[in-house]
């Protein structure tokens, strides 16, 4: 039976950089041709990244569910299955599930030299609840 | 209702480069950060690419169905939902659906200078039938 799930849920992501229950299945490693890595990230309801930046941007392709993408000092965008989000370089943002839905996205993350991400502070419960109204 | 399909089927791909009914939905365009394009390609049963090469490789992520990936002078590999195929540079190959199943994959195709692909001859019916046994 086809359950609809494409990738394994994967391994838990660290609470240092994620709030709630988030999981990663790596799909593509950087090599001489692919100057990025790619993976499937599953967020259970309420789970989200910390605020963070990417020195050479990132692409999110939403596979399942409903969530949010928010850049600092801008309104949160609701994102859903089939959506593609092009995240610019050096732009503080977070992404994650809604409070009541899971969300799964593929992330394609470019390298600048050997850096993909700079992690910042958690999205507080107050910040998170303010977009879930 | 969630039908399971993530992306639109998209626009027909040209018979010059594809046999049978194949469709493309573009997802990501090349820009200053993303040195690739990405799209969702749907192959109806029997549809396949021509033989071709990529100067800086390609990544396929199978979203749905069953198909084949074959490099020249090697056995065809059966590919299915959840599989990831890392295609090396300058390696003659084709991919497509099986004779009885559809197949949908995301393709992430790197640029070398301004070139992504060099198209070659069609996969003949004889070549295609020989892997569908």
How are the SSEs ordered, and which strands pair?
2 copies of one chain form a homodimer.
Chain A: E1 11-12, E2 18-19, E3 22-28, E4 36-43, E5 48-49, E6 52-53, E7 58-71, E8 77-80, E9 84-87, E10 93-97, E11 103-110, E12 118-119, H1 125-131
Antiparallel strand pairs in A: 1-3, 2-5, 3-4, 4-11, 6-12, 7-8, 7-9, 7-10, 7-11
How is this structure best summarized?
The structure is a homodimer of 133-residue chains. Chain A is mainly beta.
Mean pLDDT of chain A: 96
- Count of spatially separate domains of chain A: 1
What oligomeric state do these chains adopt? homodimer
| Poorly predicted residue ranges of chain A | none
Give the termini distance of chain A in whole angstroms.
37 Å
Helical stretch tally of chain A: 1
**CATH superfamily of chain A, called what?**
Jelly Rolls
Q: What is the element string of chain A, with H for helices and E for strands?
A: EEEEEEEEEEEEH
CA-based gyration radius of chain A: 14 Å
CATH class of chain A: Mainly Beta
- CATH fold group of chain A: Jelly Rolls
Biggest beta-sheet profile of chain A: 8 strands, antiparallel
Total number of beta strands of chain A? 12
Beta content of chain A comes to over 45%
CATH architecture call of chain A: Sandwich
The level of helicity of chain A is: under 10%
Class based on secondary structure composition and strand pairing of chain A: mainly beta
Shape designation of chain A: globular
């Amino acid at each position: 039976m086809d359950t609809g799930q494409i990738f394994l849920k994967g391994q838990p992501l660290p609470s240092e950089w994620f709030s709630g229950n988030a999981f990663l299945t790596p799909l593509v490693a950087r090599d001489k041709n692919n100057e990025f890595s790619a993976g499937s990230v599953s967020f259970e309801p309420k789970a989200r990244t910390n605020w963070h930046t990417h020195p050479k941007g990132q692409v999110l392709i939403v596979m399942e569910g409903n969530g949010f993408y928010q850049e600092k000092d801008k309104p949160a965008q609701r994102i859903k299955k089939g959506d593609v989000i092009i995240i610019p370089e050096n732009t503080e943002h977070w992404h994650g599930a809604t409070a009541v839905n899971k969300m799964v996205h593929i992330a394609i993350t470019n390298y600048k030299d050997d850096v993909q991400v700079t992690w910042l502070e958690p999205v507080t419960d107050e910040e998170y609840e303010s977009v879930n109204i």
